[in-house]
Amino acid sequence: MREAEIAQARERIKAHLVAIVGEGDIPRFEEALTHPSFANESGTPDNQRLEFLGDAVLGLCVSEMLVEMHPNADEGALTRMRSALVNAEALARWARVTNLGEALLLGRGAREGFEREQTNVLADAVEALVASVYVARGLGAARKLVEQVARESMNDSTELGTRDPKSLLQEQVQAEGFAAPTYRVRAVRGKKHDPTFEVEVLVGVHVIGLGEGRSKRVAERAAALAALSVRSEPRPFPEEAAPAEPLIPKAE
After folding, report:
1. How far is residue 102's CA from residue 83's CA, in Å, rounded to a whole number?
2. Is the domain of 144 the same as that of 187?
3. Is 234 exposed, middle or buried (0-12, 13-18, 19+ CB in 10 A)?
4. Domain range for 186
5. Which of 51, 124, 127, 200 is catalytic?
6. Catalytic residue (one of 55, 198, 200, 212)
7. Tens digit of pLDDT for each residue in 172-185?
8. Is 46 a catalytic residue?
């Protein structure tokens, strides 16, 4: 993307933030949307420190929301619901709805067409945005933004939070007469000390969900959650002899 297009996208995102949290400056807004690949080439600050802070702020705000909404839920259920709301897939969902990727500054060495819509890149930017609002305007403003970020995933968390998504998927698939799902690592990205795992979940030879996370366990959970979200109603799998296409709906 050209610089003018990115600048326009940033103005749009900033206006969207102001509409949510109210008028006022957000000094570290630009930093929140600067990917490390651009910072490495330009010497400007990247969004990693804000991402670290935003992860904590997001977790606190989501925990507050869940405790208020589910007064009878136990700690385990609340923990599972929070995980469903703050994982990379859930955050990237909001980022894609708002076209946040268009506002990211990426380095020339990055594969922009891919990186700009990559789940973990978008999720990191959302966390950084939450932190930038928190630093500039305090916890009250951060709560307002987190409410918007979490809104789209809230129904999923309520429905799936009481059970582990891997267990739910296994029960659903086996109830339809198929073997238990299996999980396979497709790729590992990033540095050795901070990898991101891409995992697919399969029934037989058919891929029914994709997920990623900072550990295999988190990525498997995300893949199961993705499979459950597109299988709201049971549907048959093709015969094992004809694996052809993955059973994942194509993006519009």
Report:
1. 27
2. no
3. exposed
4. 165-230
5. 127
6. 55
7. 898 888 999 999 99
8. no
